[in-house]
Specification:
Elements lengths: L1 E6 L7 H13 L21 E8 L2 E9 L13 H8 L34 E5 L5 H9 L4 E5 L2 H4 L1 H5 L8 H14 L6 E3 L11 H23 L2
Parallel strand pairs: 1-3, 1-4, 4-5, 5-6
Antiparallel strand pairs: 2-3
Helix pairs in contact: 1-7, 2-3
Length: about 230
């Protein structure tokens, strides 16, 4: 199952950190495998990268994350919208380096001319404030389930900063989810609140729970998509 993660520029982003957080939860220790940048404010991911997570020495978990360059609202530094559409349909090869000024074409080395079902995306997870509506429509046209993840919840709400268990008690965060739902056209039950592991040196049950809730729904959505093909 291929889970693609994209985002638009905002204070809520953290898609590469989410990959690290998922692996940290599943392995029971802090893992930093996907490069993340907390300084530049722009997308740190430049290449189309897949991440498999080891379940045991002989097996991987049945899902794969595809990390893609961010969609930078009102800048020339983010991924081309058309490249995201190509990624959704499996036309972008592993390791392709995105170039904001150049859209991937059939003549480029990074173009997969014969994508299989395993190459295409089964769930689109969006880490964003403002997202290009056009590639949301492309995902809808392909029947790809969509969800949104709001990160850095502890920085957004003082109650949550005091106690991460207050996430779903916070009226402010509930209001943010409702506003994002209206903005994106995604139902509130498809929008998830997450705190990524960034400064912690040990895993935490409350942070793990938020991550696993989002991951479980990603997998559920992906399974539903594949079952009804």
């Amino acid at each position: 199952m291929l889970l693609s993660i994209c985002y638009g520029r905002s204070n809520w982003t953290g898609k590469s950190s989410f990959v690290n957080s998922v692996e940290s939860v599943l392995r029971g220790r802090i893992v930093v495998r996907a490069p993340a940048d907390a300084i530049s404010g722009t997308s740190y991911t430049k290449k189309y990268t897949t991440y498999k997570i080891q379940k045991d020495p002989a097996r991987f978990y049945s899902f794969i994350f595809n990390d893609i360059m961010g969609f930078e609202q009102n800048t020339n530094s983010g991924v081309c919208v058309e490249d995201v559409k190509l990624a959704l349909s499996g036309h972008v090869t592993e390791g392709y380096q995105f170039t904001p000024e150049h859209q991937l074409t059939e003549s480029d080395q990074g173009y997969n001319s014969s994508p299989t079902l395993e190459d295409s995306v089964h769930v689109l997870a969006q880490y964003l404030y403002l997202l290009s509506y056009s590639f949301r429509l492309a995902a809808s046209d392909m029947g790809i389930p969509q969800m949104a993840i709001l990160t850095k919840v502890d920085e957004a709400c003082p109650e949550v900063k005091k106690d991460i268990n207050n996430v779903y008690k916070s009226m402010y965060l509930k209001q943010q989810v409702d506003e994002f739902s209206m903005l994106l056209g995604i139902p509130p039950n498809c929008i998830f609140l997450v705190k990524n592991y960034e400064s912690e040196i040990n895993t935490n049950d409350a942070i793990d729970t938020l991550t696993l809730i989002a991951l479980r729904q990603m997998i559920n959505f992906g399974e539903d998509f594949l079952n009804y093909l």
